[in-house]
Amino acid sequence: MSRKLRMVLFGILIPLMITFVYLTADEKNIIGLIGFAVLFLGVASKLTSKWQIPFVFCLLVAMHGLEISGMQFTRFISLGVMGLLVLFGFMNLNVLRSRPLLVSVLVIIGFHTGIFLIQPYVVNKLWILLYIQGALLFALVQMNRWKISDIRFFITAHLSYLVLWGLIERLVSDVDRISGPTMSATAFGVLLAIEWGIWITFELLQSKIKWVPILLLSPLVVLVMFFSGTRMAFIGVAIALLLASILKQHMKSKGNILGKLVRFIPYLVGISIILGLVWFLLPQSSFLKQGLMVFMSGKLDLSSIGRIMAWTTGLDAFQKHPFFGIGPGNFMGYMGELMETMGATQLIPNLPILGHAHNVVILVLSEHGFMGILMLGSVVGYAVFRLVRYVVAFPTEPLGYALGVGFVIMMTLGMVDVVPLFPSTVCFGAWFMGILYQLPDKQEDWNGGAASDQPIT
Residue 333 domain-assigned? Predict the structure, then answer.
């Protein structure tokens, strides 16, 4: 059986199995057993094959639901497995070539280990372990060579997995908004937008576009986004189409910038028609369309008010706890107390008390303080630096542009949400940062050029 066929089977059977059990079982420990089974498949593939994609794919799938109470056994097993693999991996790496990876992992793990020792706030140990697991996956991704074709295939497989889960969940449940394996409708929609943005940009920037997979997968992605009821997901779709079209025009056209902008007008018209058609086809009674209409009218619904209050809470928390913040997992309690003190709960009936700041920057400032923003900012900053160097070194390679589009969507939507720092998406963020960290900046690093099957490092 070929490795791609095995991966397709993983991508089909795993979501079928997990979704059915999750939606029909009463006991959360069953989810834990399924998560452990997926983790076992990943480890088995790691031991029997040098191809790392099934292993990382299974890790990502198993750790989407780590916040579920029944997943504690899987959480600790995955922590031990990844810890040992990272330890053995560092023993076999060239330390000088791996210095950025080594420093980043030590900084992240060292910071959270220090939190355990200092106890600057009520420490939610499971959250700290979650971030450490993310750091370990971040390291594991970089300990094997990823080809461009591997990255493309991985994104396609994981995006298909998310879509398949969403479709099955919609068929077998009657919930208003599906939440997918992330257990959050908003996080699910945003994650779909990020991955689809990377995927569609990569596909559209090919010299010869394969329209069949685009026309087959894209409508399903949009449909699942609609079922999630996530307004921001469609903003991500618009960003992806706009940037992918600009980049396509830039790569295939010659001449000055003004001429390229003029030739981009037909693309812009086409994007507007597509988005207008999607809007027209949305049912008037749908949660998504009603929410978007309120948003465009300039009025505030409870969701928008809740976000504003969450931003206020986050900034208040940073002002009062600037060095280390209030700690991950403590935001909801802090917001409840602050809203009660301000009298907001009496003035605004049914005011939602949220579990996070709904803004990536404010979340880090409020829960991790100045030390946290310095730590995570340095990791993300270096990843962006590697991405820019890669695009400059390989201006005709679609990979850099596709990853860049995904990053723009992530950070733009991150201003009103917290993906990838939401618990079930932390490991996707770790994978994404790990890929950016190993992007080369010299032609010789490709061992022969920027062909789609050449390794990244």
Answer: no
Q: Torsions phi, psi of 442, nearest 5?
A: -130, 145
Domain count across the chain: 1
**337 within some domain:** no
pLDDT digits (tens, 9 = 90+) for 151-202: 999 999 999 989 988 998 898 888 888 988 888 899 999 999 999 999 999 9
* Residue 152 domain flag: yes
- If we measure between CA atoms, which residue out of 252, 279, 276 comes closest to residue 264? 252
Check: CB of residue 363 under 8 Å from CB of residue 328.
Answer: no
Closest CA to 385 of 375, 398, 400: 400
The answer to whether the bond into 420 is cis (omega within 30° of 0) is yes
According to DSSP, residue 443 is labeled: G
Helix (H) or strand (E) run with residue 225 in it: helix 211-228
Q: Across the chain, what does the average pLDDT equal?
A: 79
Composition of the chain by helix, strand, coil, percent to 5: 75, 0, 25
- Owning domain of residue 101: 3-293+360-446
- As beta bridge partners, residue 117 has none
13 to 16, 120, 312: CA distances (angstroms)? 5, 44, 44
Interval 224-268: pLDDT, tens:
998 998 888 988 998 998 888 888 877 776 655 556 555 656 666
Which segments in the chain show pLDDT lower than 70? 1-37, 40, 44-45, 47-48, 51, 66-71, 73, 93-98, 253-303, 442-457
Structure tokens at 153: 């295939």
Q: What is the pTM of this model?
A: 0.84
Supply φ then ψ for residue 348, to 5 degrees: -120, 100
Does residue 322 sit within a domain? no
Closest by CA to 166, choosing from 142, 182, 149, is 182
Report helix, strand or coil for 147. strand
